[in-house]
Protein backbone atom coordinates (compact mmCIF):
# COMPACT_ATOMS: atom_id res chain seq x y z
CA UNK A 1 0.00 0.00 0.00
CA UNK A 2 1.45 3.33 -1.06
CA UNK A 3 1.63 6.23 1.36
CA UNK A 4 0.05 9.58 0.53
CA UNK A 5 1.15 12.94 1.80
CA UNK A 6 -1.31 15.02 3.82
CA UNK A 7 -1.16 18.31 5.68
CA UNK A 8 -0.24 18.12 9.36
CA UNK A 9 -2.16 19.92 12.11
CA UNK A 10 0.51 22.39 13.19
CA UNK A 11 -0.06 25.55 15.19
CA UNK A 12 1.74 28.88 14.69
CA UNK A 13 4.94 29.03 16.73
CA UNK A 14 4.51 32.64 17.99
CA UNK A 15 1.08 31.82 19.44
CA UNK A 16 2.35 28.83 21.37
CA UNK A 17 5.38 30.84 22.50
CA UNK A 18 3.02 33.34 24.16
CA UNK A 19 1.18 30.43 25.82
CA UNK A 20 4.49 29.12 27.12
CA UNK A 21 5.41 32.54 28.53
CA UNK A 22 2.01 32.72 30.22
CA UNK A 23 2.57 29.31 31.83
CA UNK A 24 6.01 30.39 33.02
CA UNK A 25 4.50 33.52 34.54
CA UNK A 26 1.85 31.44 36.33
CA UNK A 27 4.55 29.07 37.57
CA UNK A 28 6.59 32.00 38.92
CA UNK A 29 3.53 33.43 40.67
CA UNK A 30 2.80 30.03 42.28
CA UNK A 31 6.39 29.84 43.51
CA UNK A 32 5.90 33.11 45.33
CA UNK A 33 2.77 31.60 46.91
CA UNK A 34 4.96 28.71 48.19
CA UNK A 35 2.75 25.95 46.75
CA UNK A 36 3.78 22.75 45.02
CA UNK A 37 1.36 23.43 42.19
CA UNK A 38 4.03 25.58 40.50
CA UNK A 39 5.40 22.37 38.93
CA UNK A 40 2.31 21.91 36.75
CA UNK A 41 2.66 25.07 34.60
CA UNK A 42 6.44 24.65 34.46
CA UNK A 43 6.12 21.07 33.15
CA UNK A 44 3.52 22.20 30.62
CA UNK A 45 5.79 25.02 29.50
CA UNK A 46 8.66 22.55 29.04
CA UNK A 47 6.43 20.27 26.95
CA UNK A 48 5.41 23.21 24.77
CA UNK A 49 9.08 24.10 24.31
CA UNK A 50 9.74 20.60 22.94
CA UNK A 51 7.10 21.02 20.22
CA UNK A 52 8.63 23.96 18.34
CA UNK A 53 10.19 23.46 14.90
CA UNK A 54 11.28 25.70 12.02
CA UNK A 55 10.90 25.03 8.27
CA UNK A 56 13.27 26.69 5.84
CA UNK A 57 12.33 27.53 2.20
CA UNK A 58 12.03 24.44 -0.02
CA UNK A 59 12.00 22.12 2.97
CA UNK A 60 9.32 19.96 4.55
CA UNK A 61 8.91 18.20 7.88
CA UNK A 62 7.37 14.73 8.12
CA UNK A 63 5.64 14.17 11.47
CA UNK A 64 4.90 10.78 13.07
CA UNK A 65 3.32 9.95 16.43
CA UNK A 66 4.23 6.60 18.01
CA UNK A 67 4.90 5.07 14.60
CA UNK A 68 1.81 6.53 12.90
CA UNK A 69 2.08 9.08 10.12
CA UNK A 70 0.43 12.32 11.22
CA UNK A 71 1.16 14.57 8.26
CA UNK A 72 3.70 16.83 6.60
CA UNK A 73 4.27 20.55 6.93
CA UNK A 74 5.54 22.38 3.83
CA UNK A 75 4.93 26.04 4.69
CA UNK A 76 7.92 28.14 5.69
CA UNK A 77 8.07 29.52 9.19
CA UNK A 78 7.96 28.74 12.90
CA UNK A 79 5.44 26.09 13.98
CA UNK A 80 4.44 24.00 16.95
CA UNK A 81 3.12 20.46 17.07
CA UNK A 82 2.57 17.69 19.58
CA UNK A 83 5.85 17.43 21.55
CA UNK A 84 5.60 13.63 21.62
CA UNK A 85 5.85 13.40 17.82
CA UNK A 86 8.96 12.56 15.83
CA UNK A 87 9.93 14.99 13.09
CA UNK A 88 12.07 14.31 10.03
CA UNK A 89 13.21 17.09 7.74
CA UNK A 90 13.28 16.56 3.95
CA UNK A 91 14.66 18.82 1.24
CA UNK A 92 12.33 19.78 -1.63
CA UNK A 93 15.09 21.49 -3.60
CA UNK A 94 15.94 20.47 -7.16
CA UNK A 95 18.87 18.06 -7.30
CA UNK A 96 21.22 16.68 -9.94
CA UNK A 97 22.27 13.06 -10.17
CA UNK A 98 25.28 12.34 -12.37
CA UNK A 99 25.47 8.65 -13.13
CA UNK A 100 28.80 6.93 -13.53
CA UNK A 101 29.89 5.74 -16.94
CA UNK A 102 28.30 2.37 -17.55
CA UNK A 103 29.62 -0.19 -19.99
CA UNK A 104 26.62 -1.79 -21.70
CA UNK A 105 25.61 -3.28 -25.05
CA UNK A 106 23.44 -1.37 -27.48
CA UNK A 107 20.64 -2.90 -29.56
CA UNK A 108 23.15 -4.34 -32.03
CA UNK A 109 25.26 -5.88 -29.28
CA UNK A 110 28.10 -3.36 -29.58
CA UNK A 111 29.77 -2.48 -26.26
CA UNK A 112 29.35 1.22 -25.48
CA UNK A 113 29.97 3.61 -22.60
CA UNK A 114 27.00 5.68 -21.49
CA UNK A 115 26.17 8.09 -18.67
CA UNK A 116 23.33 10.48 -17.88
CA UNK A 117 22.45 13.47 -15.72
CA UNK A 118 19.08 13.36 -13.95
CA UNK A 119 17.36 16.48 -12.56
CA UNK A 120 14.83 15.54 -9.87
CA UNK A 121 13.09 16.62 -6.68
CA UNK A 122 10.85 15.17 -3.97
CA UNK A 123 7.14 15.90 -4.50
CA UNK A 124 5.55 13.45 -2.03
CA UNK A 125 7.28 13.45 1.36
CA UNK A 126 5.24 10.50 2.67
CA UNK A 127 6.33 8.17 -0.11
CA UNK A 128 9.92 9.35 0.10
CA UNK A 129 9.96 8.65 3.85
CA UNK A 130 7.98 5.42 4.19
CA UNK A 131 7.75 3.59 0.84
CA UNK A 132 11.49 3.26 0.16
CA UNK A 133 14.45 2.64 2.44
CA UNK A 134 16.58 5.54 1.16
CA UNK A 135 15.08 7.67 -1.59
CA UNK A 136 18.40 9.18 -2.72
CA UNK A 137 19.94 5.72 -3.10
CA UNK A 138 16.73 4.57 -4.79
CA UNK A 139 17.09 7.34 -7.38
CA UNK A 140 20.67 6.28 -8.14
CA UNK A 141 19.89 2.58 -8.56
CA UNK A 142 16.78 3.16 -10.68
CA UNK A 143 18.61 5.67 -12.87
CA UNK A 144 21.33 3.12 -13.58
CA UNK A 145 18.74 0.42 -14.33
CA UNK A 146 16.78 2.70 -16.68
CA UNK A 147 19.97 3.73 -18.45
CA UNK A 148 20.96 0.12 -19.09
CA UNK A 149 17.48 -0.65 -20.41
CA UNK A 150 17.55 2.42 -22.64
CA UNK A 151 20.90 1.47 -24.18
CA UNK A 152 19.56 -1.97 -25.11
CA UNK A 153 16.57 -0.44 -26.94
CA UNK A 154 18.53 1.69 -29.43
CA UNK A 155 21.62 1.18 -31.57
CA UNK A 156 24.54 3.53 -31.09
CA UNK A 157 24.11 4.81 -34.63
CA UNK A 158 22.07 4.06 -37.75
CA UNK A 159 24.31 3.97 -40.79
CA UNK A 160 21.37 3.72 -43.19
CA UNK A 161 19.85 6.92 -41.69
CA UNK A 162 16.58 5.16 -40.79
CA UNK A 163 15.19 4.70 -37.28
CA UNK A 164 16.21 6.19 -33.97
CA UNK A 165 19.71 5.91 -32.52
CA UNK A 166 21.47 7.03 -29.35
CA UNK A 167 23.84 9.35 -31.19
CA UNK A 168 21.53 10.60 -33.91
CA UNK A 169 18.39 11.34 -31.88
CA UNK A 170 19.44 12.80 -28.49
CA UNK A 171 16.13 14.59 -27.85
CA UNK A 172 13.97 11.51 -28.49
CA UNK A 173 16.30 9.34 -26.41
CA UNK A 174 16.24 11.85 -23.53
CA UNK A 175 12.44 11.94 -23.63
CA UNK A 176 12.27 8.13 -23.51
CA UNK A 177 14.69 8.05 -20.58
CA UNK A 178 12.70 10.70 -18.67
CA UNK A 179 9.43 8.79 -19.14
CA UNK A 180 10.91 5.52 -17.92
CA UNK A 181 12.50 7.21 -14.91
CA UNK A 182 9.22 8.96 -14.04
CA UNK A 183 7.48 5.58 -13.94
CA UNK A 184 10.20 3.97 -11.83
CA UNK A 185 10.59 6.85 -9.34
CA UNK A 186 6.90 7.53 -8.81
CA UNK A 187 6.91 4.95 -6.01
CA UNK A 188 9.45 7.06 -4.10
CA UNK A 189 7.52 10.32 -4.46
CA UNK A 190 10.16 11.74 -6.82
CA UNK A 191 9.51 13.86 -9.90
CA UNK A 192 11.93 13.79 -12.83
CA UNK A 193 12.35 17.27 -14.32
CA UNK A 194 14.93 16.41 -16.97
CA UNK A 195 17.07 13.48 -18.06
CA UNK A 196 19.81 13.69 -20.67
CA UNK A 197 22.81 11.65 -21.76
CA UNK A 198 26.03 13.25 -20.54
CA UNK A 199 28.42 10.73 -22.11
CA UNK A 200 28.14 8.39 -25.09
CA UNK A 201 30.99 6.57 -26.77
CA UNK A 202 32.01 3.18 -28.07
CA UNK A 203 33.95 0.99 -25.67
CA UNK A 204 37.74 1.31 -26.12
CA UNK A 205 38.12 -2.19 -27.59
CA UNK A 206 35.97 -1.38 -30.63
CA UNK A 207 36.30 2.40 -30.81
CA UNK A 208 38.96 2.31 -33.53
CA UNK A 209 37.05 -0.06 -35.79
CA UNK A 210 33.80 1.88 -35.36
CA UNK A 211 35.56 5.15 -36.14
CA UNK A 212 36.79 3.69 -39.44
CA UNK A 213 33.26 2.55 -40.19
CA UNK A 214 31.85 6.00 -39.48
CA UNK A 215 34.49 7.59 -41.71
CA UNK A 216 33.75 5.14 -44.52
CA UNK A 217 30.00 5.82 -44.22
CA UNK A 218 30.63 9.55 -44.32
CA UNK A 219 32.81 9.21 -47.42
CA UNK A 220 30.20 7.09 -49.21
CA UNK A 221 27.44 9.56 -48.34
CA UNK A 222 29.55 12.50 -49.55
CA UNK A 223 30.45 10.77 -52.82
CA UNK A 224 26.80 9.93 -53.40
CA UNK A 225 25.85 13.58 -53.01
CA UNK A 226 28.64 14.64 -55.37
CA UNK A 227 27.57 12.13 -58.03
CA UNK A 228 23.92 13.18 -57.80
CA UNK A 229 24.91 16.81 -58.23
CA UNK A 230 27.25 16.02 -61.12
CA UNK A 231 24.59 14.05 -62.99
CA UNK A 232 22.17 16.97 -62.61
CA UNK A 233 24.74 19.44 -63.93
CA UNK A 234 25.57 17.23 -66.93
CA UNK A 235 21.89 16.83 -67.74
CA UNK A 236 21.38 20.60 -67.53
CA UNK A 237 24.42 21.26 -69.75
CA UNK A 238 23.22 18.90 -72.45
CA UNK A 239 19.71 20.37 -72.44
CA UNK A 240 21.02 23.94 -72.65
CA UNK A 241 23.33 23.05 -75.57
CA UNK A 242 20.44 21.44 -77.36
CA UNK A 243 17.87 24.17 -76.64
CA UNK A 244 20.15 27.07 -77.62
CA UNK A 245 21.55 25.30 -80.73
CA UNK A 246 25.11 26.02 -79.66
CA UNK A 247 26.45 22.75 -81.02
CA UNK A 248 24.92 19.55 -82.35
CA UNK A 249 26.37 16.38 -80.87
CA UNK A 250 25.76 12.81 -81.92
CA UNK A 251 25.29 10.06 -79.37
CA UNK A 252 28.98 9.12 -79.32
CA UNK A 253 30.06 12.70 -78.67
CA UNK A 254 27.36 13.12 -76.02
CA UNK A 255 28.65 10.02 -74.23
CA UNK A 256 32.21 11.36 -74.41
CA UNK A 257 31.08 14.75 -73.09
CA UNK A 258 29.15 13.13 -70.24
CA UNK A 259 32.22 11.09 -69.35
CA UNK A 260 34.49 14.13 -69.36
CA UNK A 261 32.09 16.25 -67.30
CA UNK A 262 31.63 13.52 -64.72
CA UNK A 263 35.38 13.13 -64.39
CA UNK A 264 35.78 16.86 -63.89
CA UNK A 265 32.91 17.21 -61.42
CA UNK A 266 33.55 14.11 -59.30
CA UNK A 267 37.34 14.08 -59.24
CA UNK A 268 38.95 14.75 -55.88
CA UNK A 269 41.86 16.54 -57.57
CA UNK A 270 41.89 19.39 -60.05
CA UNK A 271 41.75 18.08 -63.64
CA UNK A 272 44.05 19.32 -66.42
CA UNK A 273 42.10 20.31 -69.56
CA UNK A 274 43.30 19.35 -73.02
CA UNK A 275 42.66 22.12 -75.56
CA UNK A 276 41.64 20.93 -79.02
CA UNK A 277 42.81 23.55 -81.56
CA UNK A 278 41.59 21.62 -84.58
CA UNK A 279 38.15 20.51 -85.65
CA UNK A 280 35.57 19.19 -83.26
CA UNK A 281 36.10 15.68 -84.54
UniProtKB/TrEMBL annotation:
Transmembrane segments: 12-31, 37-55
Domain of life, source organism: Bacteria
Record SUPFAM superfamilies: Band 7/SPFH domain
Domain Band: 50-214
Keywords in alphabetical order: Membrane, Transmembrane, Transmembrane helix
Gene3D superfamilies: Band 7 domain
CDD domains named among the record's database cross-references: SPFH_like_u2
Pfam families: Band_7
Keyword Transmembrane appears in the UniProt entry: yes
Protein name according to UniProt: Band 7 protein
Amino acid sequence: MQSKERQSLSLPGPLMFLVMLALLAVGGWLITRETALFLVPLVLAFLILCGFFIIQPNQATVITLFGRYVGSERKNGWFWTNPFTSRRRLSLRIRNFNSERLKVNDQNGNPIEIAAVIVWRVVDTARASFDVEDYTQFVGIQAETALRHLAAQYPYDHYDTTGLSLRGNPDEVAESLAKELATRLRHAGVEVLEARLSHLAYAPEIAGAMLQRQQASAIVAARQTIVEGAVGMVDQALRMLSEQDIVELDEERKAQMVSNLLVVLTSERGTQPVVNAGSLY
